[in-house]
Design a protein that fits this description.
Elements: E1 21-34, E2 37-43, E3 48-54, H1 60-68, E4 74-83, E5 91-102, H2 116-121, H3 123-126, H4 130-151, E6 156-157, E7 163-164, E8 176-178, E9 184-187, H5 192-202, E10 204-212, E11 225-234, H6 238-259, H7 261-266, H8 271-275, E12 282-285, H9 286-295, E13 300-303, E14 309-312, H10 322-329, E15 336-342, E16 352-353, E17 356-367, E18 372-379, H11 384-393, H12 402-406, E19 415-421, H13 422-430
Helix pairs in contact: 4-6, 4-13
The structure holds 4-amino-1,4-dioxobutan-2-aminium adenosine-5'-monophosphate (4AD) and magnesium ion (MG).
The site of 4-amino-1,4-dioxobutan-2-aminium adenosine-5'-monophosphate has 23 residues, from strand 11, strand 18, strand 19 and helix 13.
Length: 450
């Protein structure tokens, strides 16, 4: 049988087919009747178009087909494309034929309001709604921008394994599994350690895949399975790393501004806020950020042994939580990189600042509008003995890290990298309230179905 795949016309491209007769295949988003007219809103995955059937123009059978249609029935509709100024897509279809594939009965998601729990249970169907559809298209655009950016700037994609013998980002969020006769394996928290080995082989690399954290926190920004892109570059220092992170984020955001106008409009996103995301971003050291918090009277709630709470100045040495990050970001219309954190709150592999032993050459990029941390990165410890000392200090199993220590024995070089969370980034760009909406099938502590 001859394939028809090249003759499919997508609704998003209909404006290029004005005056032509086309067949669209999709699902019914909505249907109404008015006198001799039947209006069918058809969606095909690329967009929605209004199809107008004038009963006197078609046979009784075809008119009957149109009248029977219910929400989410699958259908092929043939007609002539007509320019229509008032339509959001600029076109409508004058219907000449309607072929039903399946009539859908009692579709559970109706135009009325549903609770989030109900929608999450029906995630497999919820994805068809206009809002979710728009978010997924932005997500796809973000991922394409990431790939284009790295592929176009001399980076090579190097995939990291998902089963790993050791922890990368602390031992408290590891998912554990039995691995045949070899004992325990862990789902990777980050591809970084492998990206470092890859960078010593290929220079500039990026790893891109799902990562896993047994996060016990129920927040609007945490998933247990999320996607992360992690560039790693030989001979890069922290400044090079921060410059690259700014370039990447500007590129991602401006790609969406340019190519996702319809989606962002559907989401009601204030695009001017995204247009403002241009280099240079803001930068401040952790110590400057602590001073700023204390100067601006942003207090920390501290529980006392007797259970009461007092408010204290922010103590140098503690990690920032969402409240501190949000306070700092309120002054900024663009992302801000905070660098040089206390070594005690950061991972074992980060390099000490030669100018201040108490801090490491780390950086986090915070996004504005309450989006929070989207990037975490650092220059890596490249000295074998210092790295070994850090491993021991953190009680990490030396055996499992022998191969990683090897990288510091055979041609060790300064190197740096970072990880950008795809979902955190999509949440910010789309303005979604909760991270569960920006990945097709979210995994959280209390949800694994569908
Ligand atoms: O700051 P993180 O933990 O850094 C790393 O994993 C480094 N090994 C990356 C590197 O240097 N190659 O995570 C990086 C980013 C965060 O900034 C955030 O965007 C995202 O990953 N992220 C999460 N996203 C969703 N749910 C979670 N539970 C996340 N944890 C981190
Ligand atoms: Mg982090």
């Amino acid at each position: 049988m001859e394939s028809r795949y090249k003759s499919f016309v997508a609704i998003e491209n209909l404006a290029d087919h004005i005056g032509q007769t086309v067949t669209l295949s999709g699902w019914v988003y909505d249907k109404t009747e008015k006198g001799k007219l039947v209006f069918i809103k058809l969606r095909d995955g690329s967009g929605i178009v209004q199809c107008v059937l004038f009963k006197p123009n078609v046979s009784e059978e075809i008119a009957g087909n149109a009248q029977q249609l219910t929400q989410e029935s699958s259908v092929s509709i043939t007609g002539t494309v007509r320019a229509e100024q008032r339509a959001p897509s600029g076109v409508e279809l004058d219907v000449t034929d309607v072929r039903i594939w399946q009539l859908s009965k009692d579709y559970p998601i109706t135009p009325k309001e549903h609770g989030v729990e109900f929608l999450m249970e029906h995630r497999h169907l919820w994805l068809r709604s206009a809002r979710q559809h728009a978010i997924m298209r932005v997500r796809a655009r973000v991922i394409k921008a990431i790939r284009d950016f790295f592929d176009g700037n001399g980076f090579r994609l190097m995939d990291s394994p998902i089963f790993t013998p050791n922890a990368c980002e602390g031992t408290s969020t590891l998912f554990e599994t039995e691995y045949f006769d070899l004992g325990k394996a862990y789902l990777t928290q980050s591809g970084q350690l492998y990206a470092e080995a890859s960078a010593m082989a290929l220079g500039k690399v990026y790893t891109f895949g799902p990562t896993f954290r047994a996060e016990k926190s129920k927040t609007r920004r945490h998933l247990t399975e999320f996607w992360m892109v992690e560039p790693e570059m030989a001979y890069f220092d922290l400044n090079d790393d921060m410059d690259l992170a700014e370039d990447l984020v500007e590129y991602i955001v401006q790609s969406c501004v340019k190519d996702c106008q319809r989606e962002l409009a559907t989401l009601g996103r204030d695009v001017s806020k995204l247009e403002a995301v241009r280099r240079p971003f803001y930068r401040m050291s952790y110590s400057e950020a602590v001073d700023w918090l204390n100067k601006n009277n942003v207090k920390l709630n501290r529980k006392q042994p007797d259970g009461s709470e007092i408010q204290i100045d922010f103590p140098w040495g503690e990690d920032f939580g969402a409240p501190q990050e949000e306070a700092i970001m309120q002054q900024f219309d663009r992302p801000c990189i905070i660098h040089r954190y206390p070594s005690e709150v950061k991972a074992f592999y980060m390099k000490r600042d030669p100018d201040n032993e108490k801090v490491v050459l780390a950086m986090d990029m915070l996004a504005p509008e309450g989006a929070g941390e989207i990037i975490g990165g650092s220059q890596r410890e490249d000295n074998h003995d210092l790295l070994l000392e850090r491993l021991r200090h953190e009680n990490l199993p030396e055996d499992a890290f022998q191969w990683y220590l090897d990288l510091r024995k055979f041609g060790s070089v300064p190197h740096a990298g970072f990880g950008l969370g795809v979902e955190r980034t999509v949440k910010w760009i789309t303005g979604a309230e909760h991270i569960r909406e920006v990945i097709p099938f979210p995994r959280m502590i209390y949800r694994i179905v569908p």
